Hints:
By secondary structure, the protein is an alpha+beta fold. The protein has helices at 8-13, 15-21, 27-37, 47-60, 102-105, 109-117, 120-125, 131-134, 154-162, 180-188, 230-233, 235-246, and strands at 76-78, 90-92, 167-172, 194-203, 206-214, 218-223. It has two domains: 8-92, no CATH class; 154-246, Rossmann fold (3-Layer(aba) Sandwich).
Amino acid sequence: MGNAAIDINIENNGKIPFAHRMGLISDEIYEDLTSSCKGNYWRNSDPDCLKNLEVFQANIQGINKEHVLCLPCQFELGFCLKPNCYDSDYIEYSLHQNSEHGSKHCHVYNTRQKSLFDMETTRQTLHAVPIEVSGEWIRCNPRLQYERDHFNLIPYHLNLTMKGYRAFIYCGDHDMVIPYTATLEWIQSLNYSVIEGWQPWFVDGLIAGYNIRYYHNLLFATFKGAGHTVPEYVPHQALIAYQRWIDGAGSL
């Protein structure tokens, strides 16, 4: 599972410590936030906390939350438009892909996947219905009608890993939608002992990220320089890590 949404409170509260670690807010702003919000930065009604949150938002406005080092490109993620959804589930950035910088630096999320999944041969390979039946492929298709009603999936992970199922939880370390620090926090809430602590893992002799090995077959890893969707940013390292894990490696 990569940069997965598991606990809405942990992940939304984790954005501010992550922003501080990334140098997006100053020590003073972070200290004001921690003292006024008491660690609860999400749905906090305290006047001082709200005032400091406005300062925080002003400092990160225009930052690409999917990858804090990348330009704010034009695309949408329309998972859910209901008010009780994750506040980061609907994202629209302002830099159009046809602008001076867009064509060089922006990933064309929809057009490349759309070209692939709307091909007749692709649909036949995947046993998908023809385009005349389903319509064109759309990322996070709004035609899928559902309501998100589970905002804490930690008990499910506890249940499955306690039964011995292997789990590989990984994160791009530059993603602020689901920060790696928040993922580590909910993993630590499982209270599993650490077999191998934080240490680098390598691809082609270079550090590709860091990993922690826990009891109950749980492996956590970061991917250095990756954003919200790891294979999109570091496809080679992602493939190598997956191959190692699927082959039974306890650590990378």
